[in-house]
Amino acid sequence: MENVRKDVKENPAATANILSKIFFCWLSPLFRIGYKRRLEEEDMYELLQEDRSEVLGQELQRYWDREVQKGTKEMRTPGLTKVIIQCYWKSYGVLGIFTFFEEAIKVVQPVFLGEVIQYFETYDPNDTTAFNKTLGYAAGLSISTIGLAVIHHLYFYHVQRAGMKIRVAMCHMIYKKALCLSSSAMGKTTTGQIVNLLSNDVNKFDEVTIFLHYLWVGPLQAAAVVGLLWGEIGPSCLAGMVVLLFLLPTQTMFGRLFSKFRKEISKIMKSSYLRGLNMASFFCASKIIVFVTFTLYVLLGNTISASRVFVTVSLYTAVRLTVTLFFPSAIEKLFESRVSIKRIQ
Q1: Residue 215: its pLDDT value, please?
Q2: Cβ–Cβ < 8 Å for 185, 323
Q3: CB neighbour burial string for 229-267, b if at least 16 within 10 angstroms, e if fewer
């Protein structure tokens, strides 16, 4: 690309200030061009230095060479998974902060909403203290909504960029290895195998980085939601959580099976059936959970109020997304990545 194009535009992300990076203002010129006409190759910016395949590939190659030497000394097979973790765990681990705050906001928002609704349920025009408190809750609800929008997009931008870096580094190493294969090794390897690794298996790194943090955030969020729901509707919340806990191992099992159903057409068909069942359970879960919870709540002699309904439904919605979609997706992508890593290794 650099040899063909001499008029490559400098990437504005390299000189963007902190506010520009948070709100993606550095992309505005590109959006303006795209609004006026179709984007062309000449409109693309130059790659950042840290995103270049040479830089990423050499960094991962150093870790791999070190692992090969260590494996030779210890008389064991070098592990590619271990190398990837050693190379990227620090930069990827920091992104877990974004995940934690995003899911924490999703739990706090229903609490603010419930307090605002409760004020209107017991409205007293002379109670200025309650009015001031409600203003504070409304402000908290607004700030948390804005914060959620900012953190959500920052998180997905950076985790997808992290996955892209792993994919590019792996492609660099595969291509370098292909150029160094001996005549005998070339006889055992087909072009289709190498193309398949570069076009299919490396793409799993883009997907696994998106959901991986939900493996530890999911259980924490579920525990926090159970605590809040217990204070809101008492033991009735356990009915809804039982439904969620029933769905979790079911979808986890589906995630494990996804890694087995790859490549052959018949296996892909079975994988599609499983994915359909997975998504069906996700969309049905919210209705079933709310129905079971409030049925038990009323049978125990309690009275339903708007604030309790809004808080309960919002909390279940927050935890449902994590437990029935993101958590199983993390397991699914993790097992698929393990298969891809074994194939590449």
Answers
A1: 92
A2: no
A3: beebbeebbbbbbebbeebbeebeebbeebbebeeeeee
How is residue 273 written in tokens? 């059936």
In DSSP terms, which residues pair with 45 in a beta bridge? Answer: 9
Query: In which element (H, E) is residue 102 found?
Result: helix 96-121
pTM: 0.83
Model confidence at 269: pLDDT above 60:
yes
Contact call for residues 137 and 115 (beta carbons, < 8 A): yes
Q: What is the pLDDT of residues 95-140, one digit of tens each?
A: 999 999 999 999 999 999 999 999 998 888 888 899 999 999 999 9
Question: What are 9's strand-pairing partners?
Answer: 45
Average pLDDT, integer, range 207-228: 92
pLDDT at 1: 41
Per DSSP, the three-state class of 2 is coil
